[in-house]
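Onboarding guide, step 5: your first structure request.
Type a short instruction followed by the sequence, for example:

Predict the 3D structure of this protein.
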Amino acid sequence: MASTERSLGWATSGTGDGPAAGYNADRWTNNARKTDGNGVMLFGSLLALSGTGTSTLTIADGSAIVSGYTYESNGAVTISTTGLTGSYNVILVANTTAGTLAVTATGAGTTTIAASTVRIAIATSAQDATITTAVGSTANIYLGSITTTAGTINTISRTYAYNNSLQVPSQIYAVMDQGSALSVPTASNTDIVSYGASTTSGEGLISLNTTTGIFTVNIGGMYLLDLFAIWDANATGVRMLGFTATGAPFTLDQQDFAISASVISYQYIQRSTRSILLNAGSTVKAYAFQNSGGTRSVSSYVFRITRL
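The system replies with structure tokens like these:
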């Protein structure tokens, strides 16, 4: 049986796995699609976007695989928004066509992306749609959007187009700590909101909102949900801590860790943990439940999410 095994990276033409005619672009891009996937890599500053209040959109250093083509910036890329008013998409494009692609602006101060290049640009929705038709959806990665008035950037919205094939270390985490005490009416699930403080491991893979109590997972995978709470002194009925999620492939168990407060050793301290598979873009929040017959209070609570 003939072997179909081969590799890339050998500089000598025709030796070992080296292609006879030298470097082969199709083999490289096909290999990268299979092994590295598509999207922003977890290196550098992850192509973070900034520049609100200025006339310059700054894209921090980073790297990506775009339909098998590599992209790297070893410093910040800046795109001028002078004179622009409206909404624009921030895109990372591999121009696989034979001609140029029209955009609103690039970091080189042009309004086109040259053939056989990978570049970040800002573009109108119409330009973006035309580019996607020309190169395909995997060769046009959406990084976010901006709005401008007379050249000044008003808002920046970031989309975390991270590469889902990457092995992400388990130290990726996000934590929200207690804000004000939470009142929990009897016989109802009460969302835990208004956290007072937060911290993350800094990659932007898990974002959070301390006002709504919602975590957003920006890359899919297995996650550990860990919730700690201290109830007020009342031994009547049961206490329960649980989680809800949107966009997850499975429904979280609404009866997670129902424990009678009158029989646990430290009867007012409770902890609930759960491992769950989450899709990229899933949102997660925690809730408390009790049925003592009256309103109860949760004085302290901490919610942590860690990627496994």
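Each response can be followed by summary notes, for example: Residues 4 and 176 are 51 Å apart (CA to CA).
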